[in-house]
Design goal:
Layout (H helix, E strand, L loop, with lengths): L8 H11 L6 E6 L5 E3 L2 E2 L6 H7 L7 E4 L10 E5 L4 H6 L6 H8 L3 E4 L3 H11 L2 E4 L14 H12 L4 E4 L1 H9 L3 H22 L8 H13 L11 E4 L20 E5 L3 E2 L2 E2 L3 E5 L6 H19 L7 H19 L4 H5 L39 E4 L2 E4 L4 E4 L2 E4 L7 E2 L8 H8 L2
Parallel strand pairs: 1-7, 5-6, 7-8
Antiparallel strand pairs: 1-4, 2-3, 4-5, 9-10, 10-13, 11-12, 14-17, 15-16, 17-18
Helix pairs in contact: 1-2, 8-9, 10-11
Amino acid sequence: MKYHQINSALFVKNRKKFTAEMKPNSVAVFNSNDIYPVSADSTLPFAQHRDIFYLSGVDQEESILLLFPDAPYESQKEILFLKETNDHIAVWEGEKLSKERALQVSGIRTVYWLQDFHKVLNEMMTYADTMYINTNEHYRASVETETREARFVKWWKERYPAHNVAKSNPILQRIRSVKESEEIDLIQQACDITEKGFRRLLSFVKPNVTEYEIEAELIHEFVRNRSKGFAYTPIIASGNNANVLHYIENNQQCKAGDLILLDVAAEYANYSSDMTRTIPVSGKFSDRQKAVYNAVLRVKNEATKMLTPGTLWKQYHIEVGKIMTSELLGLGLLDKADVQNENPEWPAYKKYFMHGTSHHMGLDTHDYGLLHEPMKANMVFTVEPGIYIPAEKFGIRLEDNVVVQEKGEPFNLMRNIPVEADEIESLMNE
């Protein structure tokens, strides 16, 4: 991996948090992701399942983690199963984790090769009453491919029908949403790499540059700073493309006078950052562009202050909507009649700001977190309001990543990334 090794103490803490929530006499199993085929002998780059990474630090395919806190023997409480390396694999792919190296990475002392999994699991099932299965229950999930985890669940239910079943996901949703200090440091590193990429762009962007050339500048800076690359598919949307919320073609020329909406960010050690900035192709905003820009910035700043312990996500978005409504009235995009006659289910401001303001982030860009439960300290959220005006052929979104604090305003992990319109103009014209 490109990133520096993470201290195994983080994963030891994460496992303790998970096992503390397990039912008596229960087992939990977590699988790596598959390596997904494209066609012929080509595959997509491997991306580890975030849950097994969160609990073990193992960043390798064909790995399994078994947790059994009430096991009769100490050596059975935490077990890793890994793909056994050999000389052929070492030559063609590079060495895989050895048992000794797996201990350094994870803090787990009991490590078997994968071929022993069924035999060991069978013994554990004779002791246990309940199995925790790891289903994907994220509110944005839409999974059409059968995952390695799903195949395991199907097999396990057929093999052990007399055992009780419990779900890992509700536990993970809660514990993963509240970050340890080590995790916040890793997200900060991802944000710092993103900052380097963005600053590189400010001196690079000129009229007639293409969106894909901007993408190339970013990936260059990200990888040279130990990132695998983008934390998500980058959005580099010039002109009216910014009014397509998930525009990812990135194939158009950036024209003088237009704006470029950049929803781009680096990952680091599987942790995401998530940044949006909007910059002028020519290095200077028009008066109208700057007025809308500053309105979005004010909404972002006011919304950020509301991310405090005890806040409910749904109520937070209602309050942000009120602030946005005021700004849209000031810009002349709405009038009082629009607001008085609005549909409460789809308020008037939604014509120009149709998406949410904040989501959890961490190992996943849209990270785990139960939205119906109050916010807690050390949760990490995006703040990303926008105003989209197809009739004027531009859209503006600004986005930072912030950590909820015990008291006071959140801590902005992107505090060093330029966001004031004047500063952006100044840097683009140096």
